[in-house]
Amino acid sequence: MNQTIIEFNNFKWHYSNNRKFRLDIQELKIRKGSFVGIIGPTGAGKTTFCYSIMGVVPHLQNGKMEGSVRIEEIETKNSSLNVLSQKVGLVVQNPLSQMSGAGLNVEEEIAFGLENHGYSRQEMIKKVKKIIELIGLKEYARRSPFELSGGQQQKVAIASILVLEPEILVLDEPTGYLDPLSTDMIFTLVKELKKQGKTIIFVSHKFEYLNELCDEIILINKGKIIKKGAPTEIFSDISLLSKNNLGAMDVTNLFARLKKAGKWKKRFAVSVEESEKELRSEFPWMR
Ligand SMILES: Nc1ncnc2c1ncn2[C@@H]1O[C@H](COP(=O)(O)OP(=O)(O)O)[C@@H](O)[C@H]1O
Ligand SMILES: [Mg+2]
User: Fold this and answer.
1) Which of 7, 71, 95, 251 is the most exposed place for a label (fewest CB within 10 A)?
2) Which residue of 12, 15, 173 sits with most ligand 1 atoms within 8 Å of its CB, as the best mutation to test the pocket?
């Protein structure tokens, strides 16, 4: 499981109409099957980073690229988006923007992506059925995607991408528009996909979830990787987060306040469970 699936080398990108911003990634390797969380403030370059994995940068954007991004043996700049889309799938914030609108119902919408890849009708039906079951959309299969809740629509969007069986799934703030219940649904789904061995790149501000699911967190700001590390290491570092215009989790902030009051010297907890354990051991009267 130590195989590299995504590799950046001396990569630089700037949009031709934007002199201020440059994405600059000297060296980055992402392991096959790992679940990587991407965090950073607005404008940091998270979406551009996702585009660079997908090949949207440089193929569909105007700008200048240096260095390379490799997806296994494929170098993105020398490959076509059609080939790359079978390796990498991208889910964006707004599920509606990802709907083709060509399908009358969920089944057809999911099948749409397959049509451009030359599968027989029978193969298509089989693949769509499998993915609908996997994602838990069975009862919605014959409904119009436009009648569904935001969470269900995002599931349809994810299904239309997964049906192509990409090895890498890149999700760029996919729960940004969703309510807490739908958000939970999406994170539960990606947790399942991780178990199946997919490599997942997940951009989000939902630190609680990232902390639970990720093997590694990459903090991006001003187009650069500021820090890469274990979720507990990154999320407990309140000063690192605040220096990069990010707020820590409520539970972590509690420990910072305890420290300020002279009542805490240990590391800050990054989950409710951890905090309960730490607090009980430190303050026995809490039992
Ligand atoms: N197509 C584009 N052309 C020019 N500048 C862009 C384009 N897309 C994004 N930018 C700029 O690049 C920077 C990084 O944007 P982005 O990758 O979307 O950041 P994030 O996703 O972290 O908010 C921002 O300053 C943004 O305004
Ligand atoms: Mg973005």
Assistant:
1) 7
2) 15
| pLDDT above 60: residue 148 | yes
| 134 within a domain of the structure (yes/no) | yes
Q: Are residues 15 and 150 in the same domain?
A: no
Report the number of distinct structural domains present in the chain: 2
Tokens 């274990």 correspond to 230
Residue 256 three-state SS: helix
Residues 123 and 3 in one domain: no
The ligand that comes nearest to the alpha carbon of residue 16 is: 1
Task: Determine the Cα angle at 182 with ends 195 and 215, to 5°.
Answer: 35
Q: Which is the closest atom of ligand 1 to the Cα of 220?
A: 22
> What is the per-residue pLDDT across 210-223, written as a single tens digit (0 to 9) for each?
999 999 999 999 99
Q: Are residues 81 and 3 in the same domain?
A: yes
Mean pLDDT along residues 84-106: 88
Distance 48 CA to ligand 2 centre (A): 7
Domain ranges, residue 128: 100-165
Atom of ligand 1 nearest to the CA of 48: 17
Contacts 24+ apart (CB under 8 A), 192-196: 192/134, 193/162, 193/169, 194/33, 194/35
| pTM listed for this prediction | 0.93
Q: Could you say which of 165, 200, 220 is where a domain stops?
A: 165
